[in-house]
Amino acid sequence: MKSFVVQSTFVSLLAWITLTVALPQVGSGTVTAKARAATSTARSNTVAQAAGKLYFGSATDNPFLNEDATYKAILSDNTLFGQLSPENAMKWDATEPEQGVFTFTNGDAIVALAQANGQIMRGHNTVWGSQLPSWVSDSGFDNATLISVMQNHVSTVIGHYKGQIDGWDVVNEPFNDDGTLASNVFFETIGPTYIDLALQAARAADPNAKLYINDFNIEGEGAKATAMVNLVSDLKSRGIPIDGIGLESHFILGEIPTTLQAQMEAFTALGVEVAVTELDIRMTLPETDALLAQQQTDYQTVVSACTAVADCVGVTVWEYTDKYSWVPSTFAGQGDADPWDENLEMKPAYDGIIAGFSS
Ligand code: 9MR
């Protein structure tokens, strides 16, 4: 009797779970299996290259590569991804955690993977106010010492990867939103010429790598984008090496700047290339059919802009899957920003990418 009660409770529980999971969730505010899946059979890097771009790519990080074989297998498919960016492995805190002690193990692993897969590598990044070890940020180094420390870091990291990196984010996020230069130890100690010195050291270390300045909130017209135009034209007029501007493109659903393509054109008119370097489009959770459809449209809008601009060389998503996105831990209640879902299945956003390269 007791066993029957336990068993029947178990069966009821199972039935409840089955019903709850299988019940069709229709109407607004819900997600249906059909609306969740991508329908395209085209391959994202193949269509990017057919559109004249160098690549469609993704950021990646070592913990995920080491622990998730399915994730790694999808990332390694060069019909999907023609380019990799190291999400953290080449940053200052990862590569020179103690002064003069360089560790390249994680970065090397990503470069080796890209080479084995026939994928282009972007380098990210050498000089940035974040993810700095305290021996740099809190050092109190004087001007001459910090210049030498910075030049040594740029030369050693870029030199280590000489010939293996297509484009380097040499200087990362140098601006405030109002277009003034951001306060960080380099700006505060060396002044604005830290940018010149970093770019010159990078050119000397790998003359064939494309040298980029990378930033966010420069994807549409505004004070910050104007400041980037002014900086790059000033660098070029003074003969400081600069080859590209990275538009990070961490967007909010439904808020893609209407001036995105025009801004890319304003940048390329300076004689540099541009790349969409860190694309993701986050939504307020939970996902709904409507939000996924809007996300598809938004991905298409961004990729179409790059397709339309001859000197936009490629599009990189900042992790291809929601499973490993940086977004939820940074923006409470937001997420699902990437074109593959938590189960490594393609979302409607993937169809948007394919359509964007096909436009
Ligand atoms: O995705 C990166 C995350 O894993 C790190 O914790 C974070 C720390 O700053 O950096 C993230 O990547 C950033 C990139 O390096 C520069 N642009 C903004 C990215 C998202 O924060």
UniProtKB/TrEMBL annotation:
Localization, per the record, is: Secreted
What GO biological process terms does the UniProt entry carry, in alphabetical order?
xylan catabolic process
The record's annotation in InterPro entries points to: GH, GH10, GH10_AS, GH10_dom
GO terms, molecular function: endo-1,4-beta-xylanase activity
Please write the reaction equations for the catalytic activity of this protein. Endohydrolysis of (1->4)-beta-D-xylosidic linkages in xylans
Any one GO CC term of this protein is: extracellular region
Q: What Pfam families does UniProt report for this protein, alphabetically?
A: Glyco_hydro_10
- Major localization class: secreted
> What name does the UniProt record give this protein?
Beta-xylanase
- Could you read off the lineage of the organism from its UniProt record? Eukaryota, Fungi, Dikarya, Basidiomycota, Agaricomycotina
